Amino acid sequence: MNTSDVRLDTDVLVVGGGPAGCWAAWNAAANGASVVLIEKGYVGTSGATAAGNTTTIYTRRGTTERAATVAQRVRLGHGFTEPERVERVLDRTLHNLDLLAEWGYDFPTYEDGRPYRGMLRGPDYLRFMRQKLIKARVKVIDHCPVEELLVSEGMAAGAIARSRRTGEALYISAGAVVIATGGCAFMSGALGTNNLTGDGYLIAAEAGAVLSGMEFSAQYGISPAYSSVTKGVVYFWGTFSDEAGNVLTAPGDRQSVVASELIKGPVYAILDKASPRLQEGFRKGQPNIFVPFDRMGIDPFTQRFPITLRHEGTVRGTGGLKIDNRAGTTVPGLFAAGDAATRQAMFGASTGGGGPNSSWAMATGSWAGEDAVRFVRSLGKNWRSRSVRTAAERPPTRPSGASTDIEAVLDIVKQQMLPLDKGYFRNQKSLSDTEHLLSDLWHDESWRTGRASKVREAEALIATSRWATASALLRKESRGLQRRTDFPDANPVLSRTIDTGGTDLIWTSFHNRAQASAAS
Amino acid sequence: MIEIVSVDRCIKCDLCVDACPDNVFDAVPNAAPVIARQDDCQTCFLCELFCPTDALYVSPLSETIEGSTEQDLLARGIFGSFRREMGWQNAKPRGTAGDLSYRIFETGTITP
Lengths: 520, 112
Ligand SMILES: Cc1cc2nc3c(=O)[nH]c(=O)nc-3n(C[C@H](O)[C@H](O)[C@H](O)COP(=O)(O)OP(=O)(O)OC[C@H]3O[C@@H](n4cnc5c(N)ncnc54)[C@H](O)[C@@H]3O)c2cc1C
Ligand code: SF4
Ligand code: SF4
Description:
The complex is a heterodimer.
Chain A: E1 6-15, H1 19-30, E2 35-38, H2 48-51, E3 53-55, H3 64-76, H4 83-103, E4 119-121, H5 122-135, E5 139-141, E6 146-152, E7 155-162, E8 169-179, H6 199-206, E9 211-212, E10 220-224, E11 239-242, H7 254-264, E12 267-270, H8 276-283, H9 287-296, E13 305-311, H10 313-316, E14 320-321, E15 334-336, H11 344-347, H12 356-378, E16 389-390, H13 406-417, H14 420-424, H15 428-443, H16 452-474, E17 498-501, E18 507-510, H17 513-519
Parallel strand pairs in A: 1-2, 1-8, 2-5, 8-15
Antiparallel strand pairs in A: 3-4, 6-7, 6-16, 7-8, 9-14, 9-17, 10-13, 11-12, 12-13, 17-18
Helix pairs in contact in A: 1-5, 1-12, 3-4, 4-12, 6-16, 13-16, 15-16
Chain B: E1 2-5, H1 15-19, E2 25-28, E3 31-35, H2 46-50, E4 56-58, H3 70-75, H4 81-86
GO molecular function (chain B): 4 iron, 4 sulfur cluster binding; metal ion binding
Keywords (chain B): 4Fe-4S, Electron transport, Iron, Iron-sulfur, Metal-binding, Repeat, Transport
Domain 4Fe-4S ferredoxin-type (chain B): 1-30, 31-61
């Protein structure tokens, strides 16, 4: 440790300041703990929620609206959705949305004056949470990615982060750690996902945590071809066509129709089915979709524009760290919330975009904060004096030497994960080729030089890609987001979740059913 | 991608330097911030919200450089257009109450 390095200690350390991390930090502080919230970017603008505008789910148990949402999740879950878990997540979401209203978040109203709490504008919501956390005496640290987890006798015990500005290291010892680092979108350029490189998965896996559902990460979002804006909701009112203008009419879900066509050539969209009333609703609700169109000089309601699909990985897919029925990972003292956790219990093998995801982040974030405090209390008084060590097994990055082009390494990973004929549609050959290539890249030390934080991001990206690939290899069927061209149908025998983990050596295994229900 | 920091409009508050999630800007003493790591920009438009004087321009092209000029953007009234549509003022959130997103769900085409 250098003399210039900084040391902190806190009851609860929350890693990642999207909605899951903010709710974890607030609930931990509200339960009397000291809390540090540390963020790679800036709490308020970083992550998938900040850049998007988030639909959420405001329903009361026992109503027809609630029943419709739960039934939809069960139908789309392809065998993994636990209805009672969905109910509990939505109960907590309702509670949190009411809290936001009580605290003064300026929710819109319906035309008849009833409050509408089903939409949270990303930058407004997170700015509001940031202010709330500062008032609750949470120590918020921006621009400091966490690089390693600290452990003590098999328990999570803190983390090491590094300032992006100064390169200075921060040693934070903590009684409990919440991983709220979001998902991983494989650097596809999808909106708000640049910082989402799977760092939390890697540091947790190094401490022995198990991941689950990583094969269900093949979620892609539609965006204009030139743009980052993967806001899919508008395309429900769109018509897709090929270069020559022929309307795409193939059966199946719209993503798959577009994906099959994009492999052959350009695809266009026009939002011609939106009524004038809805057009106004879109414009007055989603400026982040329409200001970019305005700047391009395109009227998407009357003009065709080229579209593409961008990988959204586990951000809108469902894989992540395996948790119990609240937010506890398989490592004591380590909790996971939001996209960092597997969401199979809520939306199974399908995407959780469009409401479920943001609700899940609120509920699991809140549970993680509460349970982290309970865990710290269970440690007794002397936990601050325990000896800790880093969980990272790898030798530290050599700072000197010819700085390799990390971009070239990232490109290799992207070329394996992003193309539609490997990522969206996969088969035994494409997956095993990717598996071998990524394994070689992981074991190659030569590129691990230069800026440590960039190397760490690349490692997280490779590790996440390897878990996703290995899990997809093991699941020899198609189900939801797992689309195997060599096994086009679902196999009822395989309606079991897949666990994975390890870093140098990746393992995968089917979870047996009995255990699955015992855990829930 | 972020393309322009207007030196004429900038009041050197450095709010954008802090608020950018991807650490794209570098602060410069007594001068406007510079775009130091343009390749890291994720085209999220959020720095524009935090700029009190509409001095920033993020092009909607996420993978190529647009090359717009300040004069051209001024003539088209584009500086600050995202902030105005959102309703933010002086780097402060405003405008959520005017959100008409509920119309997306009123016809029953999709259920959240
Ligand atoms: C374009 C788009 C639109 C969406 N729309 C909807 C919607 O309408 N409804 C819905 O329910 N869901 C939607 N989603 C999904 C939703 O945004 C996510 O599920 C949600 O943001 C998850 O919250 P989170 O806190 O887990 O992760 P995030 O909001 O992604 O936050 C994770 C945070 O962790 C930080 N971090 C990462 N690594 C580190 C590190 N090493 N150290 C410190 N910090 C780190 C990141 O910088 C980031 O700030 C959308 C997603 C996208 C991409
Ligand atoms: S658009 Fe987003 S990532 Fe790019 S400079 Fe602005 S705030 Fe930073
Ligand atoms: S936020 Fe605007 S005014 Fe402030 S430093 Fe940045 S560009 Fe200049």
